[in-house]
Amino acid sequence: MDVQSLKKLLRGKNAGLILILVIFGLVMIFIPGLSSGDSKTSPRDTEDDNLEYAKTLEARVKTIVESLDGAGRCEVMITLENGAEQVFAVESRENRTESADSERTSSALDSQRSILTVSSGGEQRPIIVRRIEPKVRGVVIACEGGDDAATALMITDAVRTLFDIPSANICVIKLST
What contacts 28, CB < 8 A, 6 or more positions away? Predict the structure, then answer.
């Protein structure tokens, strides 16, 4: 394709669409993690991480509940509201330009944000500032003392305090023998 054909194409009705596609392509190239080719974390890995996190919480709650007077042996199931989130380090740049003529003054603010990366083994990886673990949605506890109202209330209060969830999202039932 020669230069004249390219200029003609850019002047046509499709110029806006072509510009958007070019910008999208550049974004896909320069922002790590957006393209599927360079991402090391698959949805399956994230799902496995969430399952592992839930299992860890379940084991800890089971230990606490079994230590409560009257609870006895128990089984615990926890559901999570969402997956873990990662907060990346971001660099912000602002450029303010002002221009004035005899009739008016105008100013423009150009801001750019980019994710900071570090090179590791020849790959660019984003710098993670913080990891936010998934929020607990609900808890079911089946325990030997689950049919006793006082025990169930004590367990519900403990779980409500641990996860800051309403009592309606906590179910304590009797464990079948």
Answer: 34, 35
